[in-house]
Amino acid sequence: DNAENMYFFSELALTLNEPEERVAPTDSRLRPDQRLMESGRWDEANVEKQRLEEKQRAVRRRREAEAVEAMEEGKDYEGYLPLWFERKVDAVTGELICVYKGGYWEAKDKQDWSVCPDIF
């Protein structure tokens, strides 16, 4: 019903970005630029998007500098490690994949997001 007014998206597609309570502060549905855009505040959304992108670039530059410093000192540098997933080689395809390693649902139950980085 009313599909022509919903860009012919399925009900699932239309609800994928709906806010949900009690999620990690890193959940992409909490992106402030996205929320501003969805409320029609385009200029503010664009400014916020630029701020977020620059914040991401700064984090990348810091990690790259840390990697160079570690290399110069002859130390290992792990770099970014996902919180809820680990990289593994798929036994069948030989491709690098990400496999859930646990912790998210426990953190959600406790509402303890202290391990989450400030990405927004």
From TrEMBL:
Lineage: superkingdom: Eukaryota
GO cellular component: cytosol; perinuclear endoplasmic reticulum; plasma membrane
InterPro entries found in the cross-reference section: OSBP_sf, Oxysterol-bd
Coiled-coil residue windows: none
Molecular-function annotations in GO: cholesterol binding
Regions crossing the membrane: none
Protein name listed in UniProt: OSBP1 protein
Organism: Calcarius ornatus
